[in-house]
Every structure is written in C-alpha cells, then in structure tokens.
Design goal:
Blueprint (H helix, E strand, L loop, with lengths): L2 H15 L4 H8 L2 E8 L2 E13 L2 E6 L1 H4 L11 E4 L2 E12 L5 E6 L19 E5 L12 E8 L6 E5 L10 E4 L2 E9 L2 E6 H12 L1
Antiparallel strand pairs: 1-2, 1-4, 2-3, 3-6, 4-5, 5-6, 7-8, 7-10, 8-9, 9-12, 10-11, 11-12
C-alpha cells in the first residue's frame, strides 16, 4: 500500500471510530459468538452472530468453512463461547448452505440477548464496522472501521468491503449505522462478504 493511501485509510478509520457510540457497539457485541473446532493439524477458529432464540437455545449464523472442512466435507463437533464468557458450549449443526453459510444451535437457556434487527440494504461507500473476536474469547475493544466497496462478481449475494480482517475473523458480523449488513467470509485488505438479506432469507426458509 502506498504511504499516502495508508495514511488516508488510517485517518478514515479514526474518523469513523468516533461515530460509534459505546452503547451501540455493546448491543451488537452481545450477539457475537466465538467458535472453535478441531481441524487437520490443529484447530479452526472463527466467529458468528446470534440471529434468533429457539426455545432454550440460540441460533447462530457463521461461515460454512468455520464449521466444515471444505476439502473433506467433514463437519467435526466444536464449541462456542458467548460474549459473557463462561464455559465453552458444544454446538449442534443445523444447516450447511450451498453458499459459504452455516447455522448452528447452542444450548444457552439463561443467556438473554435480543438480536439487533438486520439491515436489508446499505449504500455503497457507507461506513461499516467488523465485529471480530480475535483475542481468544474476548471481542475486540472496537470494531475495525472500513467501508462498503462494491457488489462482487461472485454473485448477487456478495459484496466487497475494506476492513482489517485477519485469520479467525470469518463469520464475524459487519454492521453499519442501520444494523447488520453482512457476514465476513475471508480476505485481507479487500474482503468478500455475504449479504445479510440472503442470510436471513435462508434462515426463514430453514424455520419453515
């Protein structure tokens, strides 16, 4: 990255960070879930976010590759940790989608959370924040600031964003001032994201 571009991105991040009230961020943090499972040669870590409560369990959306070894199509059992910490909770796989999307179910009868309403659309170049969980079970102090870039050539349900994504951030919610706008799938300076409209439409189909 050229020095002037790097400086612009850094200044843009500082400006956007000041626009997010702490209580706004906390409301979304409580929806964030840390996910871990065994993988070849070690472990796979990622994130997800709560989309619904089903009886005494929580339904969590995450990236499919977080819970499934895509090379072998094997989905080994793993565990999830909620925002309030506590012991790792085993999850049950509910659905593996044809896109890079999965839903898991976590037994958590005492965890009170009211998932924030998703935003169906967000204008291009809108400021967004990545709600990543990088440091073990502890969410980042602040979401990384970026912006929506463009619709992706991969399909209608995907778009690209400029964020500070890192390994283990897959499945993290991406939010704007209007609410959740998508899910991180992967990338580096420019990452691929799955639209929240598709995620929620697939979940509504799953509920029926």
């Amino acid at each position: 990255m050229r020095p002037l571009v790097a400086l612009y991105v850094a200044l843009l991040g500082c400006e956007l960070a000041a626009q997010m009230p702490p209580e706004y961020e906390l409301a979304y943090r409580r929806c964030a879930v840390y996910i871990e499972r065994p993988a070849d040669g070690g472990r796979e870590v990622g994130a997800g976010f709560i989309v619904d409560r089903r009886g005494d369990s929580l339904v969590v959306a995450t990236a499919r590759h977080v819970v499934q070894d895509t090379a072998s199509r094997h989905a080994p059992p793993g565990h999830a940790v909620l925002y309030n910490g506590g012991p790792p909770l085993p999850y049950r796989l509910l659905h593996l989608d044809r896109e890079d999307l999965a839903f898991i179910q976590v037994h958590a009868p005492r965890y009170t959370v009211r998932p924030a309403p998703p935003c169906r659309e967000a204008p291009m170049d809108a400021p967004v924040w990545l709600l990543a969980l990088r440091a073990g079970y502890v969410p980042m102090p602040f979401g990384f600031d970026g912006r929506l870039l463009a619709r992706s050539s991969n399909g209608l349900h995907f778009w690209a964003a400029m964020t500070g994504a890192d390994q283990g951030d897959s499945g993290s919610a991406i939010i704007s001032h209007q609410g959740v706008v998508g899910m991180l799938l992967g990338g580096s300076d420019e990452v691929r994201c799955l639209d929240i409209a598709y995620i929620m439409e697939r979940y509504q189909t799953l509920k029926r």
